[in-house]
Give the backbone structure.
Amino acid sequence: MTTETLAIFEKDVYEIAEAIAPTWERRREEIEKACTPVRSWMLNELRPQGGDTVLELAAGLGDTGFEAAEALGEDGRLITTDLSPAMVGAARRRGEELGLDNVTYEVMDAERLPLGPESVDGVLCRFGYMLMADSARALSETRRVLRPGGRLALATWGPLERNPFFGLIGMSLGRRGHIPAPEPPPAPGPFSMATPERTSELLEAAGFTDIRTEEVPVHFSVADVDGYVSLVADTAGPLALAIRALPDAELAAVRAELEGTFPQFAAADGFDLPGVALCAVAC
């Protein structure tokens, strides 16, 4: 991608995050329930200790880092960051609700970290690097600010075909011409780091060693097709904005397509959409 294209993509990511922050905040519990296995894996691998400084990048509402904050204790510090001021504001409200007093909140670009070399003990980034205009640069910046022995724990989405939460509606929107076909890596996007090989390659190029990846299953539970469409429209980045922009007739057509595919995901209390995250730890 050219420098101009990267700049446009970064602007798009910023605008999408600003647009979905209010609805993401409203649906926080549903998203965090689905992502609990990912959050637990990352924190277990990060191993935060009392007195550490931990940086969370692309933190969204900050729940992954907030779980680390308790382990950091009064002498430690969590730096919760996001490119989107609206997301940082939502994270601040969540942190205040939890009564956390060892957290600072910063609007921060992961590709241009305003932190000194070797200034943090650990970094968390859940579903962030894959969306960054230049994930390689962001990972290099992460490596720069990590102290010797410091650990990075990250998560990205596994392959599209194994994540029907995104794939079902994404394919319908694509077939109907409402979203473009996803570009293959190295172009950024939700599935740009979907394989262990791609993720490890980026980490190695940034100077990380002792890299380990692991697939972590997730499950999104919805009551029906309308509940699914609503959840995607409130939280799923570019898909969310595409759904919000649909004329009523097109939205009805998309829902009708989904009604035909949903029975395979039937569960006792609605529908269960399985998925897989690819998690990695490195130092």
Remarks:
- The beta strands are 53-56, 77-82, 103-107, 120-126, 146-157, 212-222, 266-267, 270-282.
